[in-house]
Amino acid sequence: MSEIQLGVIEARFADMIWDHEPVTTSELVKMAQTAFQWKRTTTHTVVKRLCEKGLFVNTRGTVTSLISRQEFLSMQSRKFVEDTFHGSLPAFLAAFTGQGSLTREEAAQIRSMIDQAGKEE
Q: 20 to 30 Å CA-CA from 28: which of 4, 13, 59, 103?
């Protein structure tokens, strides 16, 4: 899948869609007016842009996702590790935990995820 980049406001708007989907464009106009003080045309423009990027589809005024929030975050995370740490997850974890920023619970969760991933191979 090609890289999908979102600005901060686009990401917040995408979260709004994921939180309420399926959602009509009329509902999105109201929510965006409240959250961002957008006019109707701005909302429709951003919906169109997010659809063109392949995140959502607008079918007869109802917006639904083509990619779930979790799938999108996974793609973004993998891209970050690839670009920043040459694809090395251990290098990323070393940098992330270098300041002792993990709690015991978080470390246990990570160990569990690693153990589970090893069983799936």
A: 4
The model's pLDDT over 60-91, given as tens digits with 9 standing for 90+, comes to: 999 999 999 999 999 999 999 999 999 888 88
What is the pairing mode between strands 62-65 and 56-59?
Answer: antiparallel
Q: For the chain, how far is it from start to end, CA to CA, in angstroms?
A: 23
Distance in angstroms (rounded) separating the CA atoms of residues 71 and 59: 21
How far apart are the C-alpha atoms of 13 and 19, rounded to whole Å?
10
Residues 6+ apart with CB under 8 A from 45: none
Cβ(49)–Cβ(41) below 8 Å? no
Closest of 74, 30, 21 to residue 51, by C-alpha: 21
In a 13 Å sphere around the CA of 54, the CA atoms on its Cβ side amount to 7
